[in-house]
Amino acid sequence: MASLPFQEARQEWSRRFALAAEPCPDEARGPRALLLMREFLWPLEPLKRRFSTLEVAPARTPKRVMMLPGFGAHPVRMRWMARQLERAGHTAKSWGMGINLGATADRFAKAEQRLLDLYDRRGEQLVLVGWSLGGVMARELAKRHPEKVEKVVTMGSPFSGSPRANNGWRAYQAIAGHRVDEPEIETVLTEKPPVETVAFWSPRDGVVHPRSACGRVGERDRAIALRCSHMGFVLSNEAVSALLSELERS
C-alpha cells in the first residue's frame, strides 16, 4: 500500500508528459525561434530602461488596478510595473496568489474571489491588467463580473486564433494538466468581455504569436502595438507608458 501514492504520482506525470508530447493538430506555430531566443535576454531590460525616458505624471483620476501574472510567473515579476503605477497615484494590487501555474478551475476560482474581495472593500470598479495567460484570465473575470470591472488591458495574451499559436503550449499542458483547447472553465476565449477591452501586442513577441495577442475586430475594442519582447511587457518603459495612458483614458 505504501507504493500506491508513488504509482499514482508516476501515472500522473506520465499523463502530463504525454500531453506535452502531443502533436499540434491544427499546425499552428508560435513566433520564430530567433525571437524566442531573444526572450532570454530579459535580465537586460533594466539596463535598457536607462537609455529611454519614462515620464510618470500624476493621474487625473487614480484607478484601482488588479494585476495578473503570466504563465509560470510570480507576481514579483510585475512589481516594477506596479511601482510605476503607484508613482502616478494609482493603487496596484496583485492577484493574491503565487506563481501562475495555469488557468485551472481552482486557480480561477481564487482569482475570482480576489476580485470580489477587492471590489467589496470600497465598492469601486477595478481595472484588470493581465500579462500573457493573466490577460486571458482577466478577460474571463470581466465576463463573469462586468459590473465590478471598469476595463481590461491584456499584454501579449493569447486570446485569439489557435491556443497553440505560441511557444509555450506544450509546457502549459504538462504543468497545468489539461489541453490548452480544453480549459477547466466553460468559456469562449475569443468572446469579448462586456467592458472596454484593450489588447497590447508586439511584433517582437517571442512567446505568443502577434495575431493571437492582437485579436480581431470584435474580440477586443482596441489593439495597441508595442515594440517590446514578451518579457518586456512588464519590464519596459514603453509598456508602462502605454499602460499609464490607457488608465488616463478610462
Compose a concise summary of this entry.
The longest helix is centred in the middle third of the chain and has 18 residues, at 105-122.
Structure description:
The structure is a single chain. With 250 residues, this protein is α/β, with parallel strands linked by helices. The chain has one domain (32-249): Alpha/Beta hydrolase fold, catalytic domain (Rossmann fold, 3-Layer(aba) Sandwich). The chain has nine helices and six strands. It has a six-stranded parallel sheet with strand order 2-1-3-4-5-6, with helices on both faces. Helix 1 (4-20) runs antiparallel to helix 7 (169-176). The protein is globular, with a radius of gyration of 18 Å.
Question: What is the strand and helix layout of this fold?
Answer:
Layout: H1 4-20, H2 33-38, H3 45-49, E1 64-68, H4 79-87, E2 91-94, H5 105-122, E3 126-131, H6 133-144, E4 149-155, H7 169-176, E5 196-201, H8 210-214, E6 222-225, H9 237-249
Parallel strand pairs: 1-2, 1-3, 3-4, 4-5, 5-6
Pfam family, one: Abhydrolase_1
GO molecular function: hydrolase activity
Domain AB hydrolase-1: 124-172
